[in-house]
Amino acid sequence: MAKLSSTRTGTVFIKDFDRGVITTIGAQLIDVADSRRSGVFPNRSKRYALSVAGVCGPDEYGGMVPIIFNDPDDAYQKDLIPQIHIERSALLPAPQRRQSPGYDYRIPAPQAEMVTGWTGETGPTMVEVKGIADPYDITYELHIRTRLANEVSMILRVVAGAFPPMDGALYVMDTEGACRSYDVFQESINDLSSIVDVQDREAGWTVSIRVEGEIDLRDPVIRKTVYTRFGVDVEVIPETGVVI
After folding, report:
1. Which of 78, 95, 152, 185 has its CA at 20 to 30 Å from residue 57's CA atom?
2. Which one is predicted more confidently, 98 or 36?
3. What does the alpha-carbon distance between residue 224 and residue 236 come to, in Å, rounded to a whole number?
4. What residue ranges do the domains of the chain occupy?
C-alpha cells in the first residue's frame, strides 16, 4: 500500500513572493489617511510602510517610509519622498533545481470512503494529490529615493541588511498559513542619485536581489483509487484509465 502523507501543504505563487520581499525588510500594513481625495474626511486605506530610525516619511504615513510596489495601477509617486519602490524584474525557470517527480502530499480526499482489502488493511477510495512546485529564480529591484543623503544611507543599511550577499532568507506565507524560507542573494547595489535642478534633487540607491523560489503552477487534484483484493492502494490516471 502506498504511503500517505497526513499533512496538507499550501501553495505559493508570484504574489506571495512579492509580499515576502516587502515583509522580509520589516514593512508593516498601516492605515493611511489620504487627505488629497475629495470630501471632508480623508479616505483611509491599508498601505505597507517601513519604520527607519532617523528618517521622517510623509505625514499621511505617520512618518514611516512608504513601500510602493510596481503594479500596473501603482505608478511612481514622486510626491511620496522618501520611499522604497520595489519592482519585480524577471521570473526565470530554474530546471537545475528541479527535484525528482513526485508529490508534495498525497492524502485521503475529504469525500473519500475508507474500505478494507483482503489483507485487512484499510485505505481510501479517493486521494487528494499535489505535485511538487516548479523552481524559479525571481529577481527584484528595490529603488530607494530620498531628498537627503544621510536618510538614503540609513534606509540602504536596512534594505541591504535584510538581503545580504550570502546566507539571506526570504520569508513567504503559503495558502495554508505556513511560513516558508527561501534563499535570497544580493546581486548588486547601484547609485540612483539624480539632480534635475536644485529643488528636485534626489539621493538614491537600487538594491538588486535574486530569490531561489518555487511556484505552484497546478492545483491539487482528486484521483480515484483502486483497492484491489490484495490490499494494494493504487491510482487511476483519469485521462487514460491506466492504473499506477
Report:
1. 185
2. 98
3. 6
4. 14-93+133-217
